[in-house]
Design goal:
Number of helices: 6
Structural class: alpha+beta
Strand content: 15-25%
CATH topology of the largest domain: Cathepsin B, Chain A
Distance between the termini: 62 Å
InterPro entries: Peptidase_C39-like
Helix content: 25-40%
Organism: Heliobacterium mobile (Heliobacillus mobilis)
Order of helices and strands: HEEHHHEHEEEEHE
Radius of gyration: 20 Å
Number of domains: 2
Shape: globular
Protein name: Peptidase C39-like domain-containing protein
Largest sheet: 8 strands, mixed
């Protein structure tokens, strides 16, 4: 009798563990895939002087959008809304957040899957990548803002939208929905980060999701 009860308990635990693992994988998926944009064009190598005209030392997306200040832990929605406004869509961050799925209970933080599914509902084709500063800039040079995830492990995570860069100054330009004022003036976005500092934040301490970014195309 005891052996039978033990087998039942083991089976129940195994089923529960399988369910939890499956649910976790579902919520976290899709996982970022390595960005091969540079590998698909072998001629692209950083520092190649023949590519100066093709890849300028500074760049910013051709169309900016209006800024908004986010609500608590709503950076995912406000970054997404900014991206959509840059495409000409009239949308507010609060509306996007209201319609988002895959929010973490109590904190309200939105998993990357929430951004991906919302962009799909908007008729776009989002992709989630893990890459380097070079692949990130290459994606940016396609002409669209890119959503990045920065942070410090379980202490905090934050989505921002990168709009441009200047290699000579070592600067990157972002829309950051936590900023209440425009710190950039005539420069793109409302926040500037030194590249080295951004890289330290981008190495965000999350397994599978460090050096992560989301791009989308219509």
């Amino acid at each position: 009798m005891k052996k039978k009860v033990f087998r039942v308990l083991i089976t129940a635990l195994a089923v529960s563990a399988s369910f939890l693992i499956g649910a976790t994988v579902y919520l976290l998926s899709p996982f970022p895939t390595p960005d091969s944009i540079l590998e698909r064009n072998p001629s692209i190598t950083r520092g190649n002087p023949s590519l100066k005209e093709q890849h300028p030392s500074s760049y910013h997306v051709p169309r900016e959008a209006s800024f908004e200040v986010q609500g608590h832990n709503q950076c995912s929605a406000f970054s997404t809304a900014y991206f959509l406004r840059s495409l000409g869509k009239e949308v507010k961050g609060a509306e996007v957040y209201r319609d988002f799925n895959f929010k973490i209970p109590f904190s309200g933080y939105v998993l990357p899957k929430g951004i991906m599914t919302y962009l799909e509902q908007e008729g776009l084709q989002p992709s989630i990548f893990q890459g380097t500063i070079d692949t990130l800039k290459e994606r940016l040079r396609l002409g669209y803002p890119v959503i990045v995830l920065v942070g410090n492990g379980l202490l905090w995570q934050h989505y921002m939208t990168i709009l441009g860069y200047d290699d000579e100054k070592g600067e990157l330009y972002f829309f950051d929905s936590k900023k209440e004022t425009d710190e950039n003036g005539s420069m793109p976005g409302n926040r500037t980060l030194q590249e080295d500092y951004f890289l330290s934040l981008w190495d965000n301490g999350l397994p599978w999701f460090h050096h992560m970014y989301i791009k989308a195309a219509s």
